[in-house]
Amino acid sequence: MKYISSSSVKKIGMLLCFIAFALSVNAQPRKVTGQILDESGQPIIGATIRLQDSPTGTITDIDGHFSLDVPEGKKVVVSYIGYIKQTFVPKSNTLNIVLQEDNQKLDEVVVVGYGSMKQKNITGSVSTISAEELEDLPVSNLSEALQGMVNGLTVELGSSRPGTNANEVYIRQNRTFTGISKDGGNSTPLIIIDDVIQLGTNGQPSMEQFNMLDPSEVESITVLRDASAAIYGSRAANGAILVKTKRGKKGIPVISYSGKFAVNDAVSHSKVLEGSDYGRFYNALAIGSNKASGYDDLDVLYSDMELAEMDNLNYDWLDKAGWSSAFQQTHTLNVNGGSERATYYAGATYYDQGANLGEQSYKRYTYRAGVDVRLTNDIKLSATVAGNEGKSDQIYTKGARFKLYGMSGSTEKSDYSALHHMPNHMPWSVMLPDENGVDQEYWLGPIENTYTSPNFNRDYVTSWNYFALSNSGSFSKNRTNSWNADISLTYEVPFVKGLSLRATYSSSHSSEATEQASFPYELAYVGGRMPANQHLVYTIPNSSFKQSVFDKNSTLSFKDKQSDRRQMNFYVNYDRTFGLHSISAMASIERYESFYDSRDIEYADLAHDISDTYLGVGGPSIVGTDGKSALTSDNTVTLKGESGSLSYLGRIAYSYADRYMLQFIFRSDASTKFAPENYWGFFPGISAGWILSEEGWFKRSLPWFEFLKIRASWGRTGRDNIKMWKWKEQYKMDLKGMQFGAESGKPGTSLIPQASPNRNVKWDVSDKFNLGFDTRFFDGRLSAVFDFYYDINDNILTQFMASQPGIPIYAGGSYAEENFGRVDTYGGELSLTWRDKIGKVNYNIGMDFGLSGSKVKEWVPGLRYNKYPCSSSWEEGMSTYLPVWGFKVWKGTSMGDGILRTQEDINNYWYYLESWTPEGGQTKYLDKTSKDDLRPGMVAYQDLGGEMVNGVQQGPNGQIVLEQDYGKLCEKNKTYNISTRLGASWKGLSISANIATSWGGVRFIDRASMGGNKSTMIWAPDSFWGDMFDEVNNPYGKYPNLGAESLISSSAIANSDFWMISTFRCYIRNLSVSYSFPKKWIAPLKMSAVRVNLTGNNLWDLYNPYPDHYRNMYDSSSTEYPTLRTWSLGVNVTF
What we know:
By secondary structure, this protein is mainly beta.
């Protein structure tokens, strides 16, 4: 046996020690440092660098630098929202990493109903809007910012008046069902803010809290258009909009400030006739309406001298009232940060929209704070507190009952329209001697016309003067306040991997208080008709004026309402991956409660001096001019109500290799709006997805398809859009009922039964089918999304069943809604996006387009029977997109345009009508049966049909009758829209624009009736009326004589093809230019990011079909308040 020498042992020992030392060195982590940049070379702040399959990691600092200990051979994952994730083994200790923008965002997590999911695994028709797309827009409410953002989402803008949130938002064709239920018919999508459902006091979806959010608070907005909304069941028949607000992020505290400094003004004011142009229009109108016997009737008409003087008078009431550009500002400050165990976010926003007109403004304050705390390794607590307060101040002008220009009835606001359309020769005040003979300025009640004696009451403009009303102290104040508190606790079960339990509780309160006061004011007015050459105010003798205190509009109104809502959820979640198999499941129970109360108190027709009573004396002691209580019983109302719902819901999702996806959802809702036996509704849904482009055979056959996913879904939702307790008989107490017995015939307290109850009423049903394709081509530069949908709306809650035989209803009463009818809606949507770069310039083009249709499958029978074809009632087999009907002009006149200009035209037209008159029949033009009643300046219409007999319309009968002789002016009143988004960036400079294009349906020139009952004010009309027909001075005028309308209603301005113009519209909705300062410029100032932007909203139309461009494409010429164009300079600073 050979022995190893001691020297050899020593050598072997030394070798083993060296190997062990080398292995230990290699096992030690090495420090890897570096910088992460974007494609333009700018540092990315807050990018995450972590070890694969490990929680160990870090984030980049202000300069994009990082440092991380990396064990040898361990992979590193680098990620940042909006960029493609990179995974690699570091080859050196110093790295420079460039992240590429993720155009497809397939791995981006998207918020869906009660959870989240990777974009790649979405199986429904879902679109997401990021915070970056909203933050620069200078809008007063969030719904306005959604215009043109999502295919299939439509925003109809309301008034731009400060403090008004009247926008209407709807998804796909859900507006179709508005008005079918007299108590509901809500087309508003369901709003969910951080998993909390937003409902109004009527239990229907509400946009109130959504519009109170500031864009700076929003992390993302997700729109569910199809069956994916079925997880929200009963209230998601109109689709759903999910809002995720910002939360804290791990890292050092980050402080951000965002400010917008904006100026807004009317897009434009419509052009109106002024000076002698107005005077000549007035004269032609007076003659055309038989108010003047001829041009020598100077007691009625403006003389040549007065016409000449009118051009020297320019009383611009709108300018006098102070219309001007207004300042608008938004300031937002927030902070977020945290550690591995806790993150936090807090922010506040102040918004101020100044007044363009008078004493009206709107201020809003919002705040939001939240924390996410990991109490233990298994338990996480999240809490949020948020609130807002709004203040709106306006002049109170509601009491006026006269008709404004182009309006058929009185209006809520008699300011802008009345000021803008006031003839500019009419002064707002007059100097008259007081009782001491000293000249004093009196506010003037406008002179309505020259041919009737003035009426000094609330139905006529003579009793109105904006400046007198404003100086009287009349006002309207509105105050809103709301808050909500949300808390959730999540327990990740340690002994079952992927299982978690979660409980949430949300409580919210909102209140609104409105105070309105209209005080008496003194006016001077002309006491009677004036003779020739005394029609201009300065020519009227002082003795013809009267002074009076106008108090008929004196009103005190107090309104307040409060509501409380509570939502509680308990969830069981399971999320686990087994190799290529991924399973996620959720089950939840949800309880929702709502309580509200409101009080309206109104005092009307008050005594002259109400200053003392207003300052604190209330109740019956506030009296009218007759000494009795001024409390109005009709408008003094107290309401109180409550409602609730209980829901069970769940979702199971399965994915294999991220290639095959299957999802099942269900929800069962109970609503107290129905009788107990009909409380519950069950709303399931199923969807599937298949990524064909990851199949080997597909890659070989169609290599140019880089990505192709097919999605299919079905889901059931429902509506409970009726008032509460309609299944029970309800009664209303009335103070005006006639008594029987000893007090027979005298008014007294009575009970009035309300709508006949219907205990069988239940949920209506909406089955939503969707087939979608997501594609990508050309190295990701071109992407396309196709969606085809078919919705079956069945058992519709309708108010029209009361017309059917056998329905129990008493005379003068009504009947609760009944479930009856089916309407199918369908359509297709296409979204295209191209992203590319030229040199260092990145650019993108996006386009959305959709087609839609509908068909009534089952409906209440007989609603159209024996009615003219133009009836708006539905019947089986027809589309809900109804034709637009109106007269068609008879072109046999001397100029072929339908205007009767000469007696010969009238004779020929009457002969045309007589040729269709059956033997023994009566020739008729509207309500006139004699040719002598027709006047030059009227419009001749075609005789298209006769009376209805047994459901069949007879042929022409020599009579022109409303509805009977209407023809189709367009086949379907449907508008087609294309929304185009453009963007480009170079280094820190970027520009974006949103362009809207539409056509289809019908568009008419604006028309206004003047000279009739309660509309005797001859307002300054649109400028195109300067070319109105006048038999003497303008026999070739392009437009009929408006005066003919007061002789024969519809003889000049009825809907007809005479007034139709092009429906095409193309306009730049908004435009934004921004610049991000290089990091090296701002680093010395301890700032991590600075960006400035200039943004315009409601910008330019590229085409205007209106004659003389008398109006813009945003507003009708009779608008109560014009659309505002806003330019905003914004700055965003992060520390």
